[in-house]
Here is the input.
Amino acid sequence: MRTRSLLIFMLAAFTATACSTGPVRDLGLDKLSPRKAEQELSIGLKSYEDGNYQTAAKYLQNALNLGLTFKKDQINAHKYLAFVYCASEREKQCRDEFKKALDIDPSFELSTAEAGHPIWGPVFRGMKAEQPPPKKNK
Here is the structure.
């Protein structure tokens, strides 16, 4: 009988404690799903692949504005924005996007197929040539 009373008391105390706690702490489960910036990048790249360049530019820029976590994603967003701008005869914006990608990683290169493209290949090579030489470590 005494054990049963103790068990009931402990259960009541546990229930009262559980009810009095604040909201459940953030367990970080949102980190398991892609962040909004990465989702925007994914939509932008898919839109580009589908030939929806205006939509691609919007989502790629949104991804950059939201703050992409990884440098490779930032470079990719700038690269595809450059492609969109070059293809729509907006060479200044194209150059600006390539410059931003190169500012993030001066060793950034286009693939052989991308570099051989008749529209943005020459623009990229021009931007690459304008980059200052890498700093030497002392």
